[in-house]
Amino acid sequence: MVSVAAEAPFLRAILPSLPSDFATQVQTLCGATPESPAEHILDTLIRFISGAECAPGAAIDAAQWNEKQQAAAQILNGMIRRPTSETKRQREDDFEPTSQASKRQRSAVEDATEAAAPRVSPDDPLFAIHSVSATAPVRRKVDITIYRTALTITHPTTHAVEASIPLSTLTRAFLLPTRGKTKGHWTVVLLSSDIPDRGKPATPAAPLNPQVIFGIDAVAPSPLSLTAYGGTTPTSIVVPKGRPTRPSLLDFLSRLPVPLIEPTPDVFKSVCVGFTSGVSANQEGVPGVEAYRGAKAGTLWFAREGVLWGESKPCEFWALEDLIGKSEGLRVVGVSGRTCTVVLTRKSIGEEEVAEGEEDVGVETEFQMVDVREKPGIEAWVRTFRHLFGKKKVAGEVKTIGQLEEDESDEEDEDFVIDSEDELSGSSTSDTSDEEEDEEGGGSEKDAEESDEEEQLESDGEEEELKEENHPLLRPGAVPRRMQRGVIDMVVGMVEEDMLGTSNAPSDGDEGLEEDELEE
């Protein structure tokens, strides 16, 4: 019998446990040629899928080994757990022997699952939060651990890897006061893309744009356990029962290399607080409104950075710079009775990009059944931030909410700002008030002359014929994008006057009354 090289300890360790026929095949493969590399390749493969470290001296990048090892463990775990059509209920006459085989098979699955979980060194993890309720990517109690390069979700009992997401793919983190709870509750949302996957992903175990959603009570109903990996030994952190959990959540989220967005009532505050909204973790108010996207209920959260459709997965985020424009980015329409509809319009991206020279109409998303009492608050939020709709952020430029409001007021008042020279000429003391009046009188005459000249220039410009390429409304089939109801009524009235011969001239009776009044 051919012996396996001593440099392959993992292969040598499991060789006696293999079925005899299969063990013979492995030994034959390893001794097929002198100095065959087969045993080293098999030993490395066993190390890789079992979660062990890379063999010393192997020409493999250690960082890539750990990253790929976690991804492989996730895929293998999904394949083992996936139910097959061959699994059927056994007949009662052969129940006992098959049940024993079934029990042995389940034990093998559990062993394989534990072997597939990557065993990383104590230096790799940074922070962990234990036994929290997750709704995505799995719906159960989980442990969530932040590593240097990945976010790993594991089963709290078996420690099997449920999902592993590279930190480089995460883009935003949200901390939300959950609506509809009988007591205060926080929801954490981690996004790898503002736009979720459309439809079911090709590989459910590894979606293209994964999302992580989990929640925790605002006040710990039982001790909350966390682990910090800062030194040679892990440090256990326990939040006692009855203590707030928000500081621990902020500590956890601060370890992620993504910006944290937390909607607050000073930016937007719902006016519909009652039984349906539940008890908010933020005692100052709820910074979101209840809405329906199709038949799915959820919440629109309004923040300084944009609007999030959250809690109901999949979540989606509309950043201010992604909204199509000041007037079309966010609209409140369909106000009827007690509800209205909020329409968010995102710029076209990817396959939806428009051709050069064409107008981008964007991608609209409607949210129905919004309480009409929320309309003034939503419109106030739009007035505050609409000057940022569709504008890309300048790198390194950060403004406060006060500065943003000042910028908006400055844009609206640009037409009313006087020149600095005029301002200086009018800044005199009270001793020269008579001279100022004379100067203002002369200035008014000059202004009148200048205005006459400007009117003459405008009238001259009106006589010039407009060209089609300079005005989109002159093109064939062109219509205004929006027309107010009052304008339509006025045009209809003018057409009726021309066709029916009616006018707004006073009647004979009115003329007689006017003559009587003059005689008196």
UniProtKB/TrEMBL annotation:
<dbReference type="InterPro" id="IPR011993">
    <property type="entry name" value="PH-like_dom_sf"/>
</dbReference>
<feature type="compositionally biased region" description="Acidic residues">
    <location>
        <begin position="508"/>
        <end position="520"/>
    </location>
</feature>
<dbReference type="GO" id="GO:0042393">
    <property type="term" value="F:histone binding"/>
</dbReference>
<dbReference type="InterPro" id="IPR050454">
    <property type="entry name" value="RTT106/SSRP1_HistChap/FACT"/>
</dbReference>
<feature type="compositionally biased region" description="Basic and acidic residues">
    <location>
        <begin position="83"/>
        <end position="92"/>
    </location>
</feature>
<protein>
    <submittedName>
        <fullName>Histone chaperone Rttp106-like</fullName>
    </submittedName>
</protein>
<feature type="region of interest" description="Disordered">
    <location>
        <begin position="497"/>
        <end position="520"/>
    </location>
</feature>
<dbReference type="InterPro" id="IPR013719">
    <property type="entry name" value="RTT106/SPT16-like_middle_dom"/>
</dbReference>
<dbReference type="Pfam" id="PF08512">
    <property type="entry name" value="Rttp106-like_middle"/>
</dbReference>
<feature type="compositionally biased region" description="Acidic residues">
    <location>
        <begin position="404"/>
        <end position="424"/>
    </location>
</feature>
<feature type="domain" description="Histone chaperone RTT106/FACT complex subunit SPT16-like middle">
    <location>
        <begin position="286"/>
        <end position="392"/>
    </location>
</feature>
<comment type="similarity">
    <text>Belongs to the RTT106 family.</text>
</comment>
<feature type="region of interest" description="Disordered">
    <location>
        <begin position="79"/>
        <end position="121"/>
    </location>
</feature>
<feature type="region of interest" description="Disordered">
    <location>
        <begin position="402"/>
        <end position="485"/>
    </location>
</feature>
<feature type="compositionally biased region" description="Acidic residues">
    <location>
        <begin position="432"/>
        <end position="467"/>
    </location>
</feature>
<comment type="function">
    <text>Component of the FACT complex, a general chromatin factor that acts to reorganize nucleosomes. The FACT complex is involved in multiple processes that require DNA as a template such as mRNA elongation, DNA replication and DNA repair. During transcription elongation the FACT complex acts as a histone chaperone that both destabilizes and restores nucleosomal structure.</text>
</comment>
<dbReference type="GO" id="GO:0031491">
    <property type="term" value="F:nucleosome binding"/>
</dbReference>
